[in-house]
Amino acid sequence: MTAFFIWARRFAAYRSLTELLARSSLARLAIISALPLAWIVLANIAPLVQMFVISFYQSYPLAAGTAPEFTIRHYFAFFERPLYLSAFARSFIFATLVTALTLLVMFPVAYYIAKVAPRIRRVRLLLLVIAPFWISEIIRSFAWMLMLSNRGAVNSFLSSVGYSGPPFELLYNNISLTIGVLYLTSLYMLLPLYSALEKIDDRLLEAAADLGATSFRRFTRIILPLARDGIVTGCTLVFLLVVGLYAMPVLLGGPSNTLFASTIGQIFGRAGDSWPLGSAFSMILIFAALAYVGVFMAVLQKQPGRRS
């Protein structure tokens, strides 16, 4: 009998909820979006807010029963050592170059999948590109370390085709770091580009060709303007991803190619009151990256031919 009453109460609550959802579209939207919004707040926004507050602490963690003392000296510490400034500048220069290189490499790939490949093969090609990203970044980094080492696949292949000189130093330098990061970010550039290119009406290209437009003119006057949204989205995603990379630069770049995110990780790993300093540097990196992307998007908004 007790189980029956419990079931009846649960059924009544379920029926009330379904009736509410059936009557109000606003209630449906609120319930559907509540869990994703809660996850975003708890997993992303709340840690950033906590880190922002900690960046103004004199020391952290706080001793039991003590009130926090606030200071801004951790932000000024960023300008006191050339090591921090050089790592910061290196991160932004490297992220900019990798973003441009990723765009140059992945645009032809996205165009081939979206416009050249038969429609029945497009999903297979996309799955072929996406499948390696089911593996974690760390494992893929180790795979590149094995391929680019002195006895790895690249040097072994060169030896098999007749090269008898010393092995090429492909690991722990800018070459390995650029290759690894380019591979890591390729998907984030490919998908926005594919989405934008796939929406371009083929009849526009056919009409331009019938009117005598060359391939280069069709590319610059039709394809690039219509794919601009995908380019902006892909470049933004890739830049923000690269500027905050930590694991892959440590594994593939070596100590001479340290990026600013790796410097922040080293600060957090130090003994003592290093959390406020690391938090301040993290905030500097976040705000600088957002400002950089904001300027980039503002410049593109002023370009002629921008679709509203």
Automatic annotation (TrEMBL):
It is a multi-pass membrane protein. GO terms for biological process: transmembrane transport. It is found in: Cell membrane. The keyword Nucleotide-binding does not apply. One of its GO terms (cellular component) is plasma membrane. InterPro entries: MetI-like, MetI-like_sf. Residues 88-296 form the ABC transmembrane type-1 domain. Its main location: membrane. Keywords: Cell membrane, Membrane, Transmembrane, Transmembrane helix, Transport. The chain crosses the membrane at residues 29-53, 92-113, 125-150, 170-191, 226-248, 280-300. The keyword Transmembrane helix applies. PROSITE patterns: ABC_TM1 (PS50928). Belongs to the binding-protein-dependent transport system permease family. CysTW subfamily. This is Spermidine/putrescine transport system permease protein. It comes from Pelagibacterium luteolum.
